[in-house]
Amino acid sequence: MRETTETTKTRILIVEDDPDFASILRRALEQDQEFEIVDVIDHEQAAMARIKSTGLKDINCVLLDLQLPYLHGDKTVNSMAGLQILEELRHQQRFYGTIIVLTNSKSPADGERALAGGCDGYLCKRARISDIPSMLAELKMAIRGDVILVASQMRHVFIREDISPKEARLLDLLSQDKGWPEIARELGYKTPKAAANIGDRIFDKLLTPQDQQDLTSEGIKKREKALEIWRSRKPSHG
Fold first, then answer.
1. How many domains, the chain?
2. Does 58 lie in the same domain as 20?
3. How many helices (H) and strands (E) are present in the chain, helices listed first?
4. Cβ atoms within 10 Å of 139's Cβ, excluding its own
5. How far is C-alpha 110 from the geometric centre of its chain's CA atoms?
6. How far apart are CA 141 and CA 32, in angstroms?
7. Are 201 and 160 in contact (CB under 8 A)?
8. 31 and 134: one domain?
9. Residue 74 burial by CB count (10 A; 0-12/13-18/19+): exposed, middle or buried?
10. 222 and 104 in one domain?
11. Which of 124, 158, 192 is a domain's end point?
12. Is residue 79 located within the same domain as residue 61?
C-alpha cells in the first residue's frame, strides 16, 4: 500500500530565496501525503543547473519566485531571473508540469509576462499572517490543477484567453486521439475527470460566441469544434 501511495505523489521543486517562506511552504505542503518536496533551490544558477543537467523527469510541479540572486549569498537579486527560468522550463526543456509563480512583486507587468511565459498561476506572497492559511489552501488547489491561481489584488488584470503551453499539449494529445486517462498521466492531473474539466475550459477559450451558437443550432459537439479550430490555428503556435 505504501508503494502505491508514493507513486501517486505530486513531486514539487521549490525555487525560492527566502528561507523562512520556503520553510513555511515545505511544512504546509508536506502535511498532505499527496505532496513531496523534491528540492528547494535558492538562487538562479543552481536552478538552471538543476533544470538542464538533472532534468525534470522526477518533477510534477515547480513553485517559482520571480526575483532571485544569481549565486547563493548574493545581496542583490535579478528581477528577471524567474522569467528566465520559466522560459527555460517551458520553451527549452518542454516541461508540461504545473508552474506556479510566487512573488513579492505586485507589478501588473510582471504578472502579464509570467502568464504569457506559460505559468499556470501567479500569486503575490506578500500576505498578512492571517491570510496565509487561505493562501496556502488556494495554492494546494492550484497544484492539483483545480484552479488557475491569480493574486486577488490583481485578479482583474490576468483574465486571459490565450492558450498556455500545457493547454496546447493537452489539445495536441486530444488531436492524437489520446484518452483522458493517458492525458491525465502525461500532464500530471490527478484524475481523468480533472483533465476533462480542464479540457472543457480550454474549449471555451477557443470557441467564439458564434461558435457557441452554432453548437446549439447545428448540434456540433464542443470538443470536435474546438479541435477543428485548434488544428486550423496550429501553425501559428509552431
1. 2
2. yes
3. 11, 5
4. 21
5. 16
6. 12
7. no
8. yes
9. middle
10. no
11. 158
12. yes
Please identify, among 158, 193, 211, the residue that sits at the C-terminal boundary of a domain: 158
Residues with Cβ within 8 Å of 35's Cβ and at least 6 positions away in sequence, in order, are 9, 10, 12, 29, 140, 143
- Structural domain boundaries, residue 51: 2-158
Question: From first to last of its 238 residues, what are the pLDDT tens digits of the chain?
Answer: 344 444 578 999 999 999 988 998 899 999 988 999 999 999 999 999 999 887 788 899 999 999 999 998 888 999 899 999 999 998 888 888 889 888 888 777 887 788 778 888 888 776 666 677 777 877 887 787 665 555 554 443 343 446 777 888 899 899 999 999 999 988 888 888 888 988 988 888 888 777 777 777 777 788 998 898 888 765 443 3
Question: Where are any strands of DSSP class E within 43-140?
Answer: 61-64, 98-103, 121-124
Q: Tell me if the pTM is above 0.85.
A: no
Residue matched to cell numbers 513553485 = 63
Q: Of 104, 108, 106, 138, which is closest to residue 121 (Cα–Cα)?
A: 138
